[in-house]
Amino acid sequence: MLKEIVIAIQSYAEAHRFIVKNKLWKWILIPGIFYTILFIVSMYFFGKSATAVIEYLTHTTGLDGWLQKFQNGLLGFLFAFAGIILWLVLMLFYFSLFKYIWLIVGSPVFSYLSERTQSIIEGKEFPFDFKQLLKDAVRGTKLSLRNMIWQTVYSVSLLLLSLVPVAGWITPLVALAVECYYYGFSMMDYSCERQKLSSSQSVEFIGKHRGLAIGNGLVFYLMHGAIGIGWVLAPAYAVIAATLSLYKVGKD
User: Fold this and answer.
1) b or e along 89-111 (b: 16 or more beta carbons within 10 Å of the residue's beta carbon)?
2) Which long-range contacts (CB under 8 A, 24 or more apart) does 224-230 make?
3) Which residues 6+ apart lie within 8 Å of 99 measured at CB?
4) Closest CA to 131 of 111, 114, 147
5) How would DSSP label each residue in 99-116?
6) CA gap 250, 88 in Å, rounded
7) Where are the alpha helices (H) located in 123-170, listed in sequence order?
């Protein structure tokens, strides 16, 4: 799995060279700017919501009064740290919901980008078929909804675990790994669909190559650290990198 994670990470650098060489910027920047606007607005409201949830839980459980009563520095630190962990897990959960909305909205563009990438690699044209594009978009939507349900189950479990002091400290890392896997999964499925794999076959195939999915999703999230430009580039780079990484694994 580690080897596949490395391949997925390296594929982002290859994706950049691929985009520059083949002048694909309009397919990168237009959806990327739209994504960035949605991302900024969503994160603002998600942050306020996550803070409100933590304040509500602290107040309704009487935890704030209990901590003030004991005035124990170590105990206060542990619960404050647990609050930060809970906030991070909530933000990841909210972002996962946003991610699936974006995947559904952007499915036609991502499907085209993945197909265009393979077309250039193999030196052959795939005839444009609107019905097929619509079919791909519907498939992508169904698979996104399927993944959203499963990820919600995992996220709720992690939210409960994050409430446990000390033991819950690892939950952001686990939640991030789950988030990376499911995002990478969606990026890889466009290639699987072109190979005529059914949804169940795609789930099985990507499960066997989960390192590619995790690595793809990991770099996608790391790109968000480059405020502004990283947000614009991340979505389209992810789908092209996923297509390149699958092609590379297929050649091995």
Assistant:
1) bbbbbbbbebbbebbbbbbebbb
2) 228/36
3) 179, 183
4) 111
5) HHHHHHHHHHHHHHHHHH
6) 37
7) 130-162
* Residue showing tokens 């072109």: 194
Judge whether 46 and 144 are in contact, CB under 8 Å. no
Which residue is it, tokens 């091995």? 252
CA dist 52 and 42 (Å) reads: 15
Per-residue pLDDT of the chain (252 residues; tens, 9 = 90+): 788 999 999 999 999 999 999 988 888 888 889 888 888 888 888 888 877 877 776 767 666 666 566 565 666 566 666 677 777 777 777 777 777 777 777 777 887 888 888 888 887 776 666 676 677 667 777 777 787 788 778 777 776 776 666 666 677 778 788 888 988 888 888 888 777 778 788 888 888 898 999 999 999 989 988 888 998 999 899 999 999 998 877 655
Residue 164 DSSP code: S
Residues near 8 by beta carbon (within 8 Å), at least 6 away in sequence: 184, 211, 212, 213, 214, 215, 216, 218, 219, 241, 242, 245
Matching residue, tokens 């309009």: 26
- Rounded CA-CA distance 206/194 in Å is 14
Q: Tokens for 195, please give them.
A: 């190979």
Give how far Cα 238 sits from Cα of 68, 168, 200, 209, Å. Answer: 47, 30, 22, 16
Residue that has been written with the tokens 């999964």 in this structure: 185
